[in-house]
Amino acid sequence: MTAVKPGLRYSAEHEWLNDEDPVRIGITAYAADQLGDVVFAELPEPGDTVTAGEVCGELESTKSVSELYCPVTGTVVETNEDVIQNPERINEDPYGAGWLFTVDVTEEGEILTPEQYAEQTGTEVA
Amino acid sequence: MTLKTTPLFAAHEKLGATFTDFNGWNMPLKYSSEMTEHKAVRQAVGIFDLSHMGEVFLSGPDAVKGLNTALAGDFSKMSVGRAKYTVMLTEDGTILDDLIVYRLGEDRYLMVPNAGNAPAVAEAVVARTEGMDLTVDDATADLSLVGIQGPKAADVVAALGEDFAEAAASLTNYRVTEILVNGNDWIVARTGYTGEDGFEIITPNADIAGLWEQIFSLDIGVEITPCGLASRDSLRLEAGMPLYGNELSTERTPFEAGMGRIVSFEKPENFVGRAALEPQREQTPQQVLIGLTSDQRRAARSGSEIVVDGQTVGVITSGIPSPTLSKPVALGYIDAAHADVDTEVSVDIRGKALPFIITKPPFYSR
């Protein structure tokens, strides 16, 4: 059973956000598990404007492709170059080394608590 | 509809498998990581539960005549202990299934069709051999199948017992034998669907969990990895092997699928599909099955259109980012005029035209 990490915030489209400024964004362990081994990550680049609820990249595994939705509106500050070179980081450590990008936020989209996200995905906070 | 499960379902759950619906069967998609499972088969050995595959026996004095009438291949020259890849055709000459036929005895043969097609194949064999002196027995519900695939597969089989060690040493590719285990005949064949060396073992349902457990408790200095259908698909695609439902279907003829050579027009039997295909023998099919690779990173996927000069000239039937080659590989059908190896085409991937090049499969060979 993949777990939802406490202390983070979540989107219905399976991203997590932390409380830092700029905010750091990644995909959840649940999403990484559903997607399978990620072999190609296309991420927004520093300076790109992103909009909450809109597609900002894609993650490709051997079996499928998933669009990456941005949970916030703002400007991308940093992209995780390590993940671009080594997409397997997303599966190995989705809440840590597998983070995707950071955003200087002007507006947040709809945010879920860990409990709400766990309920949506039928998983548990742990 | 309730999904069917194999006798190994509990073993898969214990290993933490993620399951998927495959043709009505609840089968392991992966246990841990499909990439790890894929690499295990390329580098060491992977174990697959393939109990959803069909097992249809055909036996009797007219067995060869029956096979030659029901299927596209010629079985009159196949010796005991041999296996042969073949297709079953519709009256229109399109592909109803692809299957392997094993000759187990003088007039005893085993057909292994795809899971979803087993009932249709069994039914068609019965209908097509009416009046012949033979019996058809669909034993799919009673038998289970485990695939042992990879460069270390023979080491695993050899460790299962004395008779297995002998089989591992003596069976060459596409050969089959039977081994008596606890009063039951197990079928051991050197066949597979991964592009690696490998074996397939068929046992009565009651015996398969014991075999599975024995395999994973072997201490032979080789890492033995359980593998799901996700890696099975990426392995077969790298090896350029067609999958029924993707490359092969009742919409495609063996000529389109590049399998004209396995249709025997020399045999005397008036096999189903012959009348439709005979006139096409000297023609170039409108579309043909080809392989594609790309130097960019996005994989083409089933359903993506192949485009040349702004015109749609074909469609992708299977595509993945190849774990072994680290680049996209795909199979698809393309108009014969554009089918030459090294032709540059575009594939429409989510609205972007990306460059691919026509490449002769297999993309990977051991």
UniProtKB/TrEMBL annotation, chain A:
GO annotation terms (biological process): glycine decarboxylation via glycine cleavage system; protein lipoylation
Entry GO CC: cytosol; glycine cleavage complex
Signal sequence range: none
Annotated ranges, domain Lipoyl-binding: 22-104
N6-lipoyllysine: residues bearing it: 63
Key words, A-Z: Lipoyl
Origin superkingdom: Bacteria
The keyword Cell inner membrane is assigned to this record: no
UniProt cross-references to Pfam families, sorted A to Z: GCV_H
Cofactor, free-text remark: Binds 1 lipoyl cofactor covalently.
UniProt family annotation: Belongs to the GcvH family.
Subunit structure and binding partners: The glycine cleavage system is composed of four proteins: P, T, L and H.
Biological role: The glycine cleavage system catalyzes the degradation of glycine. The H protein shuttles the methylamine group of glycine from the P protein to the T protein.
Protein name: Glycine cleavage system H protein
Organism, as annotated: Enteractinococcus coprophilus
UniProtKB/TrEMBL annotation, chain B:
Family the entry assigns: Belongs to the GcvT family.
Keyword annotations: Aminotransferase, Methyltransferase, Transferase
HAMAP family, alphabetized: GcvT
UniProt-annotated binding residues for substrate: 200
GO molecular function list: aminomethyltransferase activity; methyltransferase activity; transaminase activity
Gene source species: Enteractinococcus coprophilus
Name this protein carries in UniProt: Aminomethyltransferase
Domain Aminomethyltransferase C-terminal residue range list: 289-364
Pfam family, one: GCV_T
Function comment: The glycine cleavage system catalyzes the degradation of glycine.
Biological process terms in GO annotation: glycine decarboxylation via glycine cleavage system; methylation
Range of residues in the leader sequence: none
Enzyme Commission designation: 2.1.2.10
UniProt subunit comment: The glycine cleavage system is composed of four proteins: P, T, L and H.
GO cellular component, one term: cytosol
